[in-house]
Amino acid sequence: MFDIKWICDNPEAFDAGLKRRGMAAAAGDIIAVDAARRATQTELQELQRRRNEASKAIGVAKARGEDVAQEMAKVRGLKEAYQALEKEERDHVQRLNTSLAAYPNIPAEDVPEGADDDANVEIRRWGKAPETVGEAKQHFELGEALEMMDFERAAKISGARFVVLSGALARLERALAGFMLDMHTEEYDYTEVAPPLLVRENAAFGTGNLPKFAEDLFRTTDDYWLIPTAEMPLTNLIAGDILNEADLPLRFTSYTPCFRAEAGAAGTDTRGMIRQHQFGKVELVSVAHPDKSNDEHERMTECAEEVLRRLGLHYRTVVLSTGDMGFSARKTYDIEVWLPGQNTFREISSCSNCGDFQARRLNGRFRPEGLKGTKFVHTLNGSGLAVGRTLVAVLENYQNPDGSIVVPEVLRTRMAGMEKID
Q: Does the annotation count 86 as an active-site position?
């Protein structure tokens, strides 16, 4: 969400930001709607002044015993005109808010410009791809051969893009989530939260998921929305709040199921666990001081990368281009893990700095020490990590020629000492 005053004062900067996103200039149209709104407000103030004067004159005339029928009719006419203008003003406000809500965040200056992921820039990589004997199998081949990953039974229950995990693989998924949560809370100062999985429309609007991405979400018949990520409820924890500057940053983490319709992913990753309607994810959310959000962004990305390093998984980190960033982000790092079965890197985490974009929609602010007034906080979010995709990465990177899976050493205490899944 944007500050209309900033757009009016900086129309060229706003249009330049939209251009970097591959969008047409819009400042002129937005400013025109705002001008109409302000003109209507001025007319309302003038009508109210005339009503007050007329009402006062009627009171004086009544005290003198004069006939006030004509003046009363005048006041009624002013009231009707005022009500009509009020509706016109509400229409202008709605048009303005609808317009402002439709535009994505402006990219940070150091974000590479480009139309899509081809313009993403790799900034670092860690580790190396494991050596495999023969052709590496994909995770669903391994999981199905172990008889612990069942897509057919899931389809009987729920349809396509679901999975049933059982036995050691179900436990491995749980172990991964617990490992991530413990690391983030015990070593990186995140507070664990167990949030609702259903949210109201205002919460989905606050994070930028609505109205633009309604088709990507699941909605109940009584107007709740299933969360596509815990970012939604965690970021909304500060909605409408005025925080103390000394309390920043706030850091939250949560492990939740996530639900996505994947409306635009028909025919993509149809086999396996890469793209599903329901999946587990450990989310990281920070609420930061505007002057320190860039540092917090680097820190959050480091936290997510550390999970992969401790699991011994080869990965690379890229900064997304202007055409590949999410709607609410001003800058995003994607962490991509190596999958031997696909012989490629696949996204396992996105860490984004949203600046004050979400905070304006949520009205989340802080009071600077020693100063009057309030300022909007900056919000950040990232996966720390997507648990299902981490399970996929462990299966493919730790596979043996006989189809068994070596349990990463860091997880063995959570697996009752199990060293191998077969």
A: no
